[in-house]
Amino acid sequence: MYERKLGDVVLQVDGISLSFGAMRVLNNISFNVRQGEIRSIIGPNGAGKSSMLNVINGVYHPQQGAITYRGKTRDLMKVHEAAQQGIARTFQNIALFKGMSTLDNIMTGRNLKIKSNMLQQAIYWGKAQREEIEHRRKVEEIIDFLEIQAIRKIPVGKLPYGMQKRVELGRALAAEPDLLLLDEPMAGMNVEEKEDMCRFVLDINDEFGTTIVLIEHDMGVVMDLSDRVVVLDYGLQLADGPPDEVRRNQAVIDAYLGVSN
Amino acid sequence: MRIEKSVIFIFIWTLLLMVAIPWTIGKVSSNIFFEWPFFFEVAIGGLLAGVMYSLVALGFVLIFKASGVFNFAQGAMVLFSALTLVGLNELGLPMWLAIIATLAVMLLLAVAIERVVLRSLVNQEHIILFMATIGITYFLDGFGQTLWGSEVKILDLGIPNNPGLYFDGKILINDFDLVAALIAGLLVIGLALFFQYTRIGRALRAVADDHQAALSVGIPLKHIWVIVWAVAGIVALVAGIMWGSKLGVQFSLALIALKALPVLILGGFTSVPGAIIGGLIIGAGEKLAEVFVAPLIGGGIEDWFAYMLALAFLVFRPQGLFGEKIIERV
Amino acid sequence: MLYREAGEFKSTYQADQAILTIRQDRWFMWALLAVAFVLIPLVSSEYWLGTIMLPFLILALAALGLNVLTGYAGQLSLGTGGFMATGAFAAYKLATAFPELNILIVILMSGAITAGVGLLFGLPSLRIKGFYLAVATLASQFFLIWMFNKFGWFTNYSASGVISAPPMAVFGDNFVTGPYATAEAKYLFTLTLVVLFALMTKNLVRSNIGREWMAVRDMDIAAEIIGIKMLPTKLKAFAYSSFLCGIAGALWAFVYTGSVEPLAFDVNRSFQILFMIIIGGLGSIMGAFLGSAFIVLLPIFLSNAPHWVGLNIPVDLISHIEFMVFGALIIFFLIVEPHGLARLWQLLKEKLRLWPFPY
User: Fold this and answer.
1) Bridge partners of residue B174, in order along the sequence
2) In the beta sheet, which residues pair with residue A241?
3) Cα(A31)–Cα(A15) distance, rounded to whole angstroms?
4) By the 8 A CB rule, do C248 and C84 touch?
5) Please, are residues B235 and B62 in contact by the beta-carbon 8 Å criterion?
């Protein structure tokens, strides 16, 4: 793999601690994400990876620590504000809108870009219609990119798992995010599906210049794709660095293989 | 059970307001009569009525806990059981036999509902099941009245029904309300023990926590559902007997369910203690408001006051006083 | 083989986003509108227009309103009757306080007032969800009916609590309310409004706001994460839904019955409308109409059917049996097809598309 030049720090996570009642989910986690990189978070089940993403996009509010995004340290943030700041994500357990078609799901991803008001939409003439067509064009580009033309009008509830994951990625892309959080995008997929998904992730990063934070269990995938890797275990940060370095880290090996002491 | 600080806080405030508002109005307004013995008389009357609300609410909670179904038909079950009881009694069955026969009918009904409705709708969304219970409501209301007619019937179990004076003759309480509250209270305690200490009770609680997990350790879901619906049927019969002897057996019994709904949202859909405390708060609050507040705004507020009271609680605790807080997981 | 989309190619997104994308569907819709606007007024009797078509259309409008809130936005409401009452009484107060106002303005304004009331009662939806919200909407139902009963101001201090619509015309002497109004005029007036609002609703649900509603319905937390604000989205659903229900209430009081008391909009009305959208189909415009037709026609059928077969059943027994049949049908529909008549219609069309081949 050729040497990649990483940009400035876009996201700084500083000493984040999160607990639910007596349960400590994250404990003093610090790392940063640079412009244009693919950043992975790995760790065994229950390590707090998804919680970390939830903290980044404002679903959970940490008790301690600060998040600095684009040079601005954030206050207590509402869930919908992350999207306004250009952060999009997919979910470990698919969170699509089951009653809607693929097309509508991805169109919904563009909700922040639609400017016509309710009255214009009710009349569906002029601005509202122009907008629908213009955004449809954008959405069709995403549909082409993800190669899901054939399932355009099918309700997503009826799609197979792998396809749903793809639609979910499409919905996140529709927002044209600067920072894309992917929560186990390849979980439960077969080899071909995984290969496709890897290709999409790389292409998104490459073609659109999107910064990506990725949670993944498949070590091969993580090591191949990532620029840098953070390792969590039971809410603690074990390691942070390039894949090769992390691979050789004794604490990480112990956490994954189990250690008797 | 762990009680959160905020619940105790809300509870104390509620009690304070329940005393303070009538007292203030009594001081300020010349139309409202306020004196401590009278206040307690009203409050006690309200609490006793509240126990009866709790009884109906309990039926809802049982089914909701065990199957996640919001059973709108609980009120219809109250009416249906009371109609059946009186109907069988009029056919010549002695009262004790009629009660046993009605219990059997309620059990049969539980089996029928499980077979016909629940089994076919398993894994459907909650809202669909809720609407199915509205269907059951209409069916039972119609069926009961088709079978037994719609005229008002008198149900007399020989419970004394005359006002008695207590506390040195200062406070007037209806004996019937006392007896009814006592019976309801016993039933509630019995159910609590049943849930806590019997095998079926534990299975029920397991199912309530997680259907899949309960299935995987070999708890037969179908039996459990029949059992909860049957228990809810029994609770309905007791409520039907109590309310029926008080008001006469007639269609309006079905509307008592509407009284129990605010109790549910106040106490939390999943909590037995919530149903009891909620019932007491609603009962007392409603009576106090009726006597001390309603005359100022035109009266007749019993249709909606309980709902507004419950809504006010929801602003502070969206899951009800004792409901489980939901942590969103994504 | 007459009904199919093969061979119809769309070259623009505009054509692909049309309401009815299949040519035959468009023909069918135009034919249906022609029948509704021309044929029915010509051939129907006064009875049919006045006592069947009018309530069918008006209740369909209310069902449309509830379907926006419950079927599309996923907020279960049992307060429809209260909102209809608000529309009726708002129209009455407007029409009596400002007699020079045109009926169209009166009706639209009463819709707007109801939308405001709906907003108010929709506020708790931010904090509470699901069944808690459903029960909370009952609060609005009971409170509103109590209010209209209790305060004489709303009925202009009528002793009976009944309000009567003054005679009003759309233009000239085309009266649509009061004793001079013909059944045809009432029917055409109502039909026009209902068709317009149905079209408007369809436009909304296929636009961004409709997608936001469905997103909130299907998975609210994911909707929020992609940037949809909960409160405005839910409140818009409450407001628009109550707007339609308010207009339906105003039409009910003014055009259909002519005079009405608050009890006409009690909790049973709320359930009736809810049944319409269950039977017709949740989240479907067509469903509101199918459900309304079903619920309006069923009692008429049930009360006449015994006579046709020579049975003589007392009236109160019929009403009990009606309850039973209603209940059983609701359960039946939920079990057989939770998506209602509209879904059955869709399945029929899919079969027709392939006919005469089975696949």
Assistant:
1) B163
2) A229
3) 9
4) yes
5) yes
Kindly state whether C150 is in contact with chain B, defined as any CB-CB distance less than 8 angstroms: yes
**Residue A14 included in any domain:** yes
Helix (H, G, I), strand (E, B) or coil at A38: strand
Produce one character per residue of C297-322: b if its CB has 16 or more CB atoms within 10 Å, e if not.
Answer: ebeeebeeeeeeeeeeeeeeebbbbb
Q: What is the pLDDT of residue A2?
A: 52
- Whether A98 and A156 have beta carbons less than 8 Å apart is answered as yes
Chain B neighbors of C76, CB-CB under 8 A: 127, 130
Q: Using CA atoms, how far apart are residues B315 and B328, in angstroms rounded to an integer?
A: 19
Lowest pLDDT segment from B62-76, B123-137, B177-191, B204-218? B204-218
Return the structure tokens found at B273.
């203690």
- Residue B175 near residue B161, CB atoms below 8 Å: yes
- Chain B segment 290-329 residues within 8 A of A by beta carbon are 327-328
The pTM for the full model equals 0.90
For B5-316, CATH number out of 3.60.21, 2.60.40, 1.10.3470, 1.10.1760 equals 1.10.3470
Pairwise CB contact (< 8 Å): A59 & B327: no
Provide the domain limits for residue A111.
97-173
Closest residue by Cα to residue C291 from C302, C301, C274, C277: C277
Average pLDDT of the residues in C287-309: 87
Closest by Cα among A58, A40, A93, A33 to A224 = A40
Q: Which helix (H) or strand (E) holds C260?
A: strand C259-260
Residues 6+ apart with CB under 8 A from C327: B134, B135, B136, B137, B138, B139, B140, B141, B142
Instruction: Say whether residue C226 is in contact with chain B using an 8 A CB cutoff.
Output: no
Nearest in space to B8 (alpha carbons), one of B316, B326, B262: B316
Q: Give me the residues paired with residue A66 across strands.
A: A14
Cα–Cα distance between A154 and C147 in angstroms, integer? 47
**For C341, phi and psi rounded to 5 degrees?**
-60, -35
Identify whether residues A150 and A202 lie together within a single domain.
no
Only one residue has tokens 């939920």, namely C334
In chain C, where the domains are located: 46-265
* Burial degree of A261 (CB within 10 A; 0-12, 13-18, 19+): exposed
ipTM of the complex: 0.91
Q: How many angstroms separate the CA atoms of B307 and B261, rounded?
A: 8
Q: How many domains does chain A have?
A: 2
User: Is A193 within a domain?
Assistant: yes
Distance (Å, whole) CA A224 – CA B257: 62
Portion 57-76 of A in contact with C at CB < 8 A: 57, 59
How big is chain B, counted in residues? 330
A43: left (phi over 0), alpha (psi -120 to 50) or beta: left
Are A135 and A75 part of one and the same domain? no
Q: Do B300 and C149 touch (CB under 8 A)?
A: yes
Q: Which two tokens stand for residue A220?
A: 């091969």
Rg (CA), chain C: 21
Q: What is the DSSP string of A53-116?
A: HHHHTTSS--SEEEEEETTEE--S--HHHHHHTTEEE--SS----TTSBHHHHHHHTTGGG---
Name the region of A147 (left: φ>0; alpha: ψ -120 to 50; beta: rest).
Answer: left
- By C-alpha distance, the chain B residue nearest A53 is B330
Question: Parallel, antiparallel, or unpaired for β C259-260 and C163-164?
Answer: antiparallel
Is A164 found in the same domain as A35?
Answer: no
B203-214 mean pLDDT? 73
| pLDDT of res. A3 | 57
- A50/B330 touch (CB, cutoff 8 Å), yes or no: yes
The percent of residues above 70 in pLDDT, for chain C, comes to 97
**pLDDT number for residue C216:** 95
pLDDT digits (tens, 9 = 90+) for C161-181: 899 999 998 887 888 888 888
Task: Yes or no: say if A188 and A168 are a contact pair by the CB < 8 Å rule.
Answer: no
Name the residue with tokens 């419970």: B159
